[in-house]
Amino acid sequence: MFDEILGLPLHPLVTHAAVVFSPLLAVLSAAYALIPRFRPRLDWAVALLAVAAPVTVFVAKESGEAFKTRLFQDQTPEPVATHESFANPLLIASIALGVLALVLVYAANRSTRQSAMIVGALTVVAAAVVGYYVFRAGHSGATAVWGG
């Protein structure tokens, strides 16, 4: 299911969505947490990205496993293994950020200021973690393909 789309390997195609949506979610959710006056303008964008980013990371992870199996049945080269090692942490971090961003949008609109501040602080930390892992996964994937 996650191997090909229209005869092309799915992983290189969907990876671009994950590399765009994940940092965008990190930046917008951090801005939502830190700059309250932007909240009315960012509600829907943060909520949509909170769903889209983890989904694209999940599809990128699964398609990467299918792609690796197709290219390297038994032996995984070291650069590919390094790239693969960032998949699960990035998926977990993006799911956590997505959940926190949704809770933050809800808390900012419905809860007390104190609960929004706590969730906001956690969201900023999760955004930093997602930024770190998306950078590491992207860089190691580019290194695996292009060398360096």
UniProtKB/TrEMBL annotation:
<dbReference type="Pfam" id="PF09990">
    <property type="entry name" value="DUF2231"/>
</dbReference>
<feature type="transmembrane region" description="Helical">
    <location>
        <begin position="115"/>
        <end position="135"/>
    </location>
</feature>
<protein>
    <recommendedName>
        <fullName>DUF2231 domain-containing protein</fullName>
    </recommendedName>
</protein>
<keyword id="KW-0472">Membrane</keyword>
<feature type="transmembrane region" description="Helical">
    <location>
        <begin position="42"/>
        <end position="60"/>
    </location>
</feature>
<keyword id="KW-0812">Transmembrane</keyword>
<keyword id="KW-1133">Transmembrane helix</keyword>
<feature type="transmembrane region" description="Helical">
    <location>
        <begin position="86"/>
        <end position="108"/>
    </location>
</feature>
<feature type="transmembrane region" description="Helical">
    <location>
        <begin position="13"/>
        <end position="35"/>
    </location>
</feature>
<feature type="domain" description="DUF2231">
    <location>
        <begin position="7"/>
        <end position="146"/>
    </location>
</feature>
<dbReference type="InterPro" id="IPR019251">
    <property type="entry name" value="DUF2231_TM"/>
</dbReference>
